[in-house]
Write a structure and sequence with these properties.
The protein has helices at about 1-10, 50-60, 85-95, 185-195, 205-220, 230-240, 245-250; strands at about 30-35, 40-45, 60-65, 75-85, 100-105, 110-120, 125-130, 165, 180-185, 225, 265. By secondary structure, it is an alpha/beta fold.
């Protein structure tokens, strides 16, 4: 799935950009405006597919639709200067879509922007709703390294949701020195095994998030030592705060035994050379 990848990216790496102004017809009206990281949407009886079609086209975002048809009920919604990430969540809910994924990457100037949305509408199949155009200088990505993505192509790898992806084994170490607490060996083992489930391109950010959340839980519990149950809870909290789809959350490890479950193998050719 370029999707599971994104699911796991999702909790740890996010940013977005939208832009547009559009009117469909007298009966269905849609206006989308992006300004300084804030999104304003005015939709009156607009079909969900039309909302995301114009969103992708006008904002230069790739949108992949997984499943059959969008819901066919008209959507009326007003959003005023809302942070992009929150606005997308509101739109997904208003359009009665099942799940979604947002992929955020950095351009050659180091600015993060939304480059892809995966939408699950239920059913089988997959199609590209909108593609990314590379002819705008502001949207041009200079090289692979600026993307900070593990995958060389966004749609070649299919994920059926039955098991985690078998990414290359994590060879590093989490930044335990940044933690306020001591970590017992079970906590370190749990966290490092968790990193095997994270796409290589975002492991640095993921590691920092695990440390921060584990520290927060330790403070709440009034303990001096971080144990594996704390790191397991940290992973669950990160997933909930990130709005992970249910099929991804259910695969997250809750105990050491969960790391022994089967994983879906991935062809190394699907990964960027830097991450093989």
């Amino acid at each position: 799935m370029k999707v599971l990848k994104k699911y796991f990216l999702h909790p740890f790496v996010f940013a977005v950009v939208f832009f547009s102004g559009f009117s469909i017809s007298a009966a269905a009206k849609l206006e989308i405006i992006h300004n300084e990281g804030l999104l304003t949407v005015s939709a009156e009886e607009v079909l969900p597919e039309d909302i995301f079609l114009e969103l992708g086209k006008e904002c230069n975002i790739e949108i992949i639709v997984r499943g059959g048809k969008f819901p066919e009920n008209g959507v009326t919604i007003e959003l005023k200067d809302m942070p992009i990430k929150d606005a997308v969540k509101k739109l997904v809910k208003a359009c009665a879509l099942k799940n979604y994924l947002m992929d955020f990457k950095k351009d050659d100037q180091g600015k993060s922007r939304l480059v892809k949305i995966d939408l699950s509408v239920g059913g089988r199949g997959q199609r590209v709703l909108t593609s990314v155009k590379r002819n705008k200088s502001s949207d041009k990505i200079s090289d692979k390294s600026s993307y900070q993505s593990s995958f060389s192509k966004d749609t070649d790898f299919q994920w059926d949701g039955s098991a985690p992806i078998a990414f290359p084994e994590f060879q590093g170490e989490l930044p335990y020195d940044k933690s306020e607490f001591s970590w017992d060996e079970s906590a370190k083992s749990f966290s490092e095994n968790t990193m095997d489930l994270v796409p290589p391109g975002v492991r640095g950010i993921a590691a920092e998030e695990i440390i921060k959340m584990s520290d927060q839980i330790a403070r709440e519990r009034g303990t001096d030592t971080i144990t594996s149950d704390i790191t397991a809870e940290a992973l669950q909290r990160i997933s909930k705060q990130s709005g992970m789809p249910p099929e991804v959350v259910k695969l997250l490890p809750k105990s050491a035994e969960d790391f022994d479950k089967p994983r879906i193998p991935i062809d190394p050719g699907q990964l960027q050379e830097d991450y093989r």
